[in-house]
Design goal:
Blueprint: E1 7-9, H1 11-29, E2 35-40, H2 43-59, E3 64-69, E4 86-89, E5 102-110, H3 114-126, E6 131-139, E7 151-155, E8 163-167, H4 169-172, E9 176-180, H5 182-187
Parallel strand pairs: 2-3, 2-5, 5-6, 6-7
Antiparallel strand pairs: 1-9, 3-4, 8-9
């Protein structure tokens, strides 16, 4: 099947990128002891779970896969919008302790860095991790804060007017990353 020219990563490319990131995480951390993967809601959570599964397949041991709600830490939403925040393990354990853990924070797209700043603030309020590493599926540039990922699926230079749209099977029914140009973003197509 012919992909749209706007598709910059298809299902196979996403799978390969996540497998590569899993290997890079293992290499950099010399295994998984003391590590936890924390996905930023919403798509970062599903990507974190996939990475955790890849690592389990490679290492033969599970790694904690958790989710992080950063709603009350965002600087683009009124404070009254917050419902909850904190780290929740994939098994629903709200008592997950980040203290002295090497946290691999995962998000779908890195743009200005503001989401990552909010996530780091939320993590620090949960405890003091040994370190925080950043993994993203797509880095599109245009940082407003001094944040740089440790692991990147794909670097995609964009204009500020373009948008990156990540679709994941768990939410959207298929896996792909698309770049939307200004006119396409306006008309929804």
């Amino acid at each position: 099947m012919q992909e749209s020219p706007n598709v910059i990563m298809d299902e196979a490319a996403i799978r390969r990128a996540l497998t590569r990131i899993a290997h890079e995480i293992l290499e950099k951390n010399k295994g998984i002891e003391g590590c936890a993967i924390v996905g930023i809601r919403t798509r970062g959570v599903y990507l974190a779970r996939r990475i955790a599964e890849r690592i389990r397949e490679i290492e033969g041991s599970p790694i904690a896969a958790c989710e992080l709600d950063i709603t009350r830490y965002r600087d683009d939403r009124p404070l009254g919008d917050a419902v909850s925040a904190g780290v929740v393990c994939s098994d629903g354990d709200r008592s997950f302790d980040v203290k002295d853990k090497r946290i691999i924070l995962f998000d779908d797209v890195l743009y200005t860095g503001r989401t990552i700043r909010a996530a780091m603030d939320a993590l620090m309020d949960c405890g003091r991790p040994q370190s925080i590493q950043l993994a993203v599926l797509v880095d599109r540039g245009h940082r407003e804060l001094p944040i740089r990922p440790d692991y990147v699926g794909k670097n995609v230079p964009t204009s500020k007017h373009e948008q990156i749209e990540v679709s994941l099977t768990e939410i959207d029914g298929d896996d792909r990353v698309m770049i939307k140009h200004p006119r396409e973003a306006e008309v929804g197509g």
